[in-house]
Design goal:
Elements: E1 2-7, H1 11-14, H2 19-26, E2 30-34, H3 40-46, E3 54-58, E4 68-72, E5 78-81, E6 94-98, E7 103-108, H4 119-137, E8 142-147, H5 160-163, H6 172-183, E9 186-188, H7 189-193, H8 209-212, E10 219-224, E11 231-236, E12 248-252
Parallel strand pairs: 1-2, 7-8
Antiparallel strand pairs: 1-12, 2-4, 3-4, 5-6, 6-7, 8-10, 9-10, 11-12
């Protein structure tokens, strides 16, 4: 089974590019999208030609903001939205799909903001979200995918020293949040297979960042430790464009 995760930075924008051709080429069983930036009906309309998938959307109350979608060729046993914590559940950031052997959680984690004005909120989010995942794990192993809005280690961004504790996504608070998640029994699948590889999933549209490969690894497949033996590969598909993020892929047997 191939699972794809992709922050598409606007469903209406990316579908005007090579998105449908790319999805056909990738040919995954499950497709998880983040930052759809549209209401449910608008996402449904934009993705209408993807007829081979059961489709689920979770959009923010605020229009043109956030939003996630799960598209699955096989129908999940159940699908739930948000994590059941009132202060977090109006931004369309979480969809959980239950399959026979695991839960698949698609997430778009809040950005801490240009001036780190949401950093305190982000810390609270991380704590609540970790508890949500551990609760799911009581029933079945968990595959978490999405834009986690953190570069976990210096290897995960091009300019680590100039960004540390100054830029959203590379503060000690956010790094600690990821540390706590991994210490709670989860594994960063890409780093498991590629411990020393410098590779990125996000490049700013400014300063020719992608051309120069000045990027960040913000997108992850995080899996329950007991699911790791079934993971065949975890890869970054940087050959695909259309967004300021590229898709990532998990293959599980």
């Amino acid at each position: 089974m191939k699972i794809i995760s992709w922050n598409i930075n606007g469903v209406r924008a990316i579908t005007q590019k090579d998105f449908f051709k790319d999805i056909e080429t990738i040919n995954s069983e499950i497709l998880c999208l983040q930052e759809t930036k549209a209401q449910d009906t608008q996402v449904e309309k934009a993705l209408a030609q993807l007829t081979g998938y059961h489709q689920y959307y979770n959009s923010a109350e605020r229009k043109g903001y956030s939003g996630v979608a799960v598209l699955s060729k096989s129908k999940p046993l159940s699908v739930t939205f948000d994590m059941g914590v009132a202060q977090h559940d109006n931004e369309g950031r979480v969809i959980s799909a239950e399959y026979e052997n695991f839960y698949l959680v698609n997430v778009y984690v809040p950005n801490s903001g240009q001036k780190l004005e949401r950093l305190d909120y982000r810390k609270e989010w991380d704590d609540h979200f970790r508890a949500y995942l551990k609760n799911l794990e009581k029933t079945k192993p968990v595959i978490l995918c999405g834009d986690l809005n953190v570069a976990h280690r210096a290897i995960d961004l091009k300019n680590d020293k100039s960004n540390y504790n100054k830029t959203a996504g590379y503060t000690q608070v956010e790094i600690d949040g990821m540390d706590k998640l991994l210490k709670a029994g989860f594994v960063d699948s890409y780093r498991h297979f590629n411990p020393e590889t410098e590779a990125y999933t996000y490049w700013s549209y400014r300063f020719k960042a992608r051309e120069r490969n000045t990027g960040w690894r913000l997108d992850y497949f995080i899996v329950s430790e007991n699911l790791l033996p079934q993971v065949k590969s975890s890869t970054i598909l940087s050959q695909y464009f259309g967004s300021d993020h590229c898709p990532i892929q998990l293959e599980i047997g």
